[in-house]
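Intended use. Records such as the Ligand-binding SRPBCC domain-containing protein entry shown here are meant for training and evaluating sequence-to-structure methods. They are not intended to support clinical decisions.
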Amino acid sequence: MKLYQLHSKQALPITRHEAWQFLSDPANLKVITPKHMGFNILTGADREMFPGQIIQYKVSPFPGFTTKWVTEITHVAQGSYFVDEQRFGPYALWHHKHFIKEIDNGVEMEDIIDYKLPLGILGQIAHPILVKKQLQEIFSFREQKLQELFGSIADIPTQLEFKSF
């Protein structure tokens, strides 16, 4: 069983409050997800984020394949971090921590995603060919979209790193 981790950091020239307002609203996931993924929230995004919140999505991670994805918001520290965990969907495990911290001239957003693929050895073969590539594309799109919306802090590059255990 292989466990993977994606670690991303991005700096934005906005306040912690502005970052929290945007990132803690599940409806904004559609804004920062590539359109070709057909991402749509079905239920659960109609109120402010809270621990225990269940959100259901429909997504097409690959052409010709559409699935439901159900996540639970398990932890929330207002203005600082939240955690979502997959309850049903395309991964065998998905645990996504979102952190927001103040830095000079803005905030740093940090994401740490621990995930496991289904299908054993087939999932491990698919990781470098499909999954890792797609996650890189999603986070690249997200970086660009957030820069369009909020600007960037030029001297702090975005970081994206993958590990496996």
